[in-house]
Amino acid sequence: MHSRSSSRENSTVDSTLYSPDVDVSDIDEKRLMRKVDLHVVPWLSFLYLLSFLDRGTIGNAKLYNLEQDIGITDKQYLIALTVFFFPYALLEPASNVFLRRVKPSIWLSTMMLLWGIVTVMHGVIKDYGGLITVRVLLGATEAGLYPGIVFYISSWYKRSEMGSRIALFFSSATVAGAFSGLLAAAIANMDGIGGKAGWQWIFILEGLFTVVIAVISYWAIQDFPDDAKFLSEPERVFIIRRLQADMKLSAAGEKFSSKYVWQSLADRKTWIASEDFHFALGLFRRSSGIQSGNLHGLVRS
C-alpha cells in the first residue's frame, strides 16, 4: 500500500517536472548563477542609472538659466517637478501587465527609447506649457521601468536571491547622482553652439545617449530563461526547475489573474512600501525646495 502511494507521488512529481527528459546533473549551480548575474544585473543597473540621470537633468538645467530662457518662475518650475509623479504613479502598476504579453527586450527597450526621445524634447521647449508637457510625458514613459525590472529579476532568481540583486541595480541611482552634475557642467560649455543654450545641450545630448543605449538594449537584454540565448538547454531547464522548486514558474509561462492584484492590495507589505515611497518623496520635496506651504500654493494654482 505504501509503495503504491510512493509510486503515485513520484509519478506526479515527474509529470510536473519541466522537461523531465533533460539531464541537469552536471550543472554547477553557483557557476551558472554567476553567469546569469553577469548577463542580467549589470545592464539593468545601467538602464536604471540612465533613468535617474534623465529625470534629474532638469535640476542641472535650472542652474544654467532654464527658468530665465523660457520665462518661468520658481513656483512654475516646482509645479513642473511635481507633475512628473502623477503619470509615474498612475501607470507604474500597469507596466507588468504589458511585460507579460511582450518580451522584456521589447518592452523595456521601447520604454527607454521613448523616454530618451522625450528627454531630447526638453531641449527644444520654448515656454511653460512645453515644460509641463514633456515632464508629464517623461513620467509616463519612465513609469514602468522599476516594476518591470523587479518583475524581470523575479523570473530568474529565487525569492531568497532577489534582495541582493535588486539592491545592486537600485544602488546605480546613487551613481547617477554622483556624476550627473559634473557631466552637466561639461556639456554646458557648449552654450551658444548651434544657437542653443547650455541647458538645451544637456537635455539633447543626454537624451540622445539614452536613445542609442535603448536601441542596443533590444539585443542586450535577455528575455525569460525559457529562451535565453546565452544559456544551453540544460542550463535553461535547471533555472526553471529551481524556480519551480521555489514555488514559482517561469514568468514567460504565467497567466495574468486579477486575484493576484487583490492579494497584493490586501498585503500589508504593499502599504508599508507605499509609506516608504511617500517618505522618500518628502525628502525629495525638501531637497528640491518644495516646502509644505509652497506645495499648497502649487495645488491652489
Secondary-structure map with pairings?
Blueprint: H1 2-16, H2 29-63, H3 66-70, H4 74-83, H5 85-91, H6 95-101, H7 104-122, H8 128-142, H9 145-154, H10 159-170, H11 172-187, H12 198-220, H13 233-245, H14 258-266, H15 268-287, H16 292-300
Any overview of this molecule?
The protein is mainly alpha-helical and 301 residues long. The chain has a domain at 38-223: MFS general substrate transporter like domains (Growth Hormone, Chain: A). Helices cover 75% and strands 0% of the residues. It has 16 helices and no strands. It has helices at residues 2-16, 29-63, 66-70, 74-83, 85-91, 95-101, 104-122, 128-142, 145-154, 159-170, 172-187, 198-220, 233-245, 258-266, 268-287, 292-300. It is elongated. It starts with a helix and ends with a helix. Mean pLDDT is 81; it is low at 1-15, 249-253 and 283-301.
Q: What share of the residues lie within helices?
A: over 70%
Mean pLDDT: 81
Number of strand elements: 0
Overall shape: it is elongated
Q: How would you name the CATH homologous superfamily of the domain at 38-223?
A: MFS general substrate transporter like domains
Radius of gyration: 23 Å
CATH architecture classification of the domain at 38-223: Up-down Bundle
Number of helical segments?
16
Write the CATH fold name of the domain at 38-223: Growth Hormone, Chain: A
Jot down its keywords:
single chain; 301 residues; mainly alpha; Growth Hormone, Chain: A; disordered N terminus; disordered C terminus
Concise summary:
This protein is mostly helical and 301 residues long.
